[in-house]
């Protein structure tokens, strides 16, 4: 088999890239280790930046999102139970975010992939990129026990943090930068109306809490937890008691304590690998970088990477110019590092760090108080939260 671009991974990065290349008339095949239900079923991102909303529209996939998604022009910060609102739309000249779950985005992308003939191979075992240093790279995998091979011009590694693509780049070429946080997020989904019409990010002396949502009837809540905690340590009643304390009495009075139907713990990490290209292999999304979830940036960064990568590849195949592919890594990383900075800062501002003392806590409270009283500080937060432009 032969194609122009072999894409490893059918998460948001791989699927958006597949659609973008299809639209540009570039031939691509996506190789995914799991099946559709698995990829679509993972409960992850909830907040789309304007660039992601725009991309859904540009691909002609905005119809259900426009109908079912929730446009948020503001978000709330809470400090020891006292809530104040950041009016993002007013502060940024009209920018907003969209609450529309990653699961819904994936459903729309998979449905359209089928309809438009975007080529996806599911259940591809032992996917391996080869000869990435040459101009004849190829990918092998096993399907139903049979070895397969795909020759291509380029490989796009969109296979997430644990994928094979980053590992295929020689270790002496890659530089990695990392910060591991000494806590996790315990998240639940519940079939009940949210406690507020917008999100609440809360800094409490007992730890961070976040009230989010998926729809007017489905709530998503997160609690900062210890890395030693297990799901069994957090029966629903304990979760509701704790989040009620951390969000404060006003929000707590509106929490509907319905049974959770999903509960999971995620570790928090900042991670960037440079460069995002080696030879004929490009990295995009979580394969190249991870942010702690606090700023809601992970999936949106995967989107900005593949928008840039698709532009570069289209330029190569349509105009015969290598300028775009040569500039891809530097261009993508410039935006990645700004999102890394924001996610690190927002995490540092809102979480309780076990190794820090009373002084650090006073710094957090002072900064939250400063943001509350300073339009300049609010503009900085708002323009990062809604997402920086693609340049
Ligand atoms: P992934 O989603 O990891 O997809 C990679 C794909 O590659 C997977 O389907 C995997 O099966 C496949 N794969 C892996 N290895 C191989 C292999 N060897 N061969 C073939 N296929 C392979 N982001 C936001 O923007 N906003 C949010 O509000 C937000 N909230 C989050 C909340 C939580 C609790 C978590 C955990 C994450 C959150 N994120 C958020 C982050 C977001 O979910 C990720 O950044 C996003 O999924 C990255 O997409 P990706 O396609 O790069 O990687
Ligand atoms: C959600 C996740 C986030 O990381 C965030 O900052 C906001 C919302 C969510 O899953 O709803």
From TrEMBL:
Gene Ontology MF: a single term: 4-hydroxybenzoate 3-monooxygenase activity
Q: Does the keyword RNA-binding apply?
A: no
- Record bears the keyword Flavoprotein: yes
Family annotation (InterPro entries) = FAD-bd (IPR002938), FAD/NAD-bd_sf (IPR036188), HB_mOase (IPR012733), RIFMO-like (IPR050641)
This protein's source sits in the domain of life called Bacteria
Recall the taxonomic lineage recorded for the source organism. Answer: Bacteria, Pseudomonadati, Pseudomonadota, Alphaproteobacteria, Caulobacterales
- Per UniProt, the enzyme's principal EC class comes to oxidoreductase
- Location of the FAD-binding domain: 2-343
Listed A to Z, the keywords are: FAD, Flavoprotein, Oxidoreductase
NCBIfam families reported for this sequence: pbenz_hydroxyl, PRK08243.1
Organism, scientific name: Caulobacter hibisci
Annotated protein name in UniProt: 4-hydroxybenzoate 3-monooxygenase
Q: What is its EC number?
A: 1.14.13.2
């Amino acid at each position: 088999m032969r194609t122009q671009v072999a894409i490893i991974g059918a998460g948001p990065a791989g699927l958006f890239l597949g659609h973008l290349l299809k639209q540009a008339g570039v031939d691509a095949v996506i190789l995914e280790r799991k099946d559709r239900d698995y990829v679509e079923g993972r409960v992850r991102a909830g907040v789309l930046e304007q660039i992601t909303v725009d991309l859904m529209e540009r691909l002609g996939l905005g119809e259900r999102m426009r109908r079912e998604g929730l446009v948020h022009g503001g978000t709330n910060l809470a400090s020891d139970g006292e809530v104040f609102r950041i009016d993002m739309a007013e502060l940024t000249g009209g920018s907003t975010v969209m609450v529309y779950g990653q699961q819904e985005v994936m459903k729309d992308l998979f449905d359209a992939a089928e309809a438009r003939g975007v080529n996806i191979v599911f259940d591809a075992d032992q996917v391996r990129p080869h000869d990435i240093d040459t101009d004849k790279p190829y990918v092998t995998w096993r399907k139903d026990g049979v070895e397969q091979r795909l020759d291509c011009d380029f490989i796009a590694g969109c296979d997430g943090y644990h994928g094979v693509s980053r590992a295929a780049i020689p270790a002496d070429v890659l530089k990695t930068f990392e910060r591991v946080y000494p806590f996790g997020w315990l998240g639940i989904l519940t079939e009940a109306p949210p406690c507020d019409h917008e999100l609440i990010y809360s800094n409490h002396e007992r730890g961070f809490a976040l009230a989010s949502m998926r729809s007017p009837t489905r709530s998503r809540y997160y609690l900062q937890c210890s890395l030693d905690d297990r799901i069994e340590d957090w029966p629903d009643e304990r979760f509701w008691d704790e989040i009620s304390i951390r969000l404060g009495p006003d929000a707590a009075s509106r929490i509907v304590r319905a049974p959770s139907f999903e509960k999971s713990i995620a570790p928090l990490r900042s991670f960037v690998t440079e460069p995002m290209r080696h030879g004929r292999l490009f990295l995009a999304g979580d394969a190249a970088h991870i942010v702690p979830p606090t700023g809601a940036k992970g999936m949106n960064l995967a989107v900005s990477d593949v928008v840039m990568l698709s532009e570069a590849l289209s330029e190569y195949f349509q105009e015969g110019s290598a300028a775009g592919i040569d500039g891809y890594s530097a261009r993508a990383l410039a935006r990645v590092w700004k999102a890394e900075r924001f996610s690190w800062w927002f995490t540092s501002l809102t979480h309780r760090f076990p190794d820090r003392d009373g002084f650090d806590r006073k710094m957090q409270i002072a900064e939250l108080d400063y943001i509350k009283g300073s339009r300049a500080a609010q503009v900085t937060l708002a323009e990062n939260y809604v997402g920086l432009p693609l340049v």
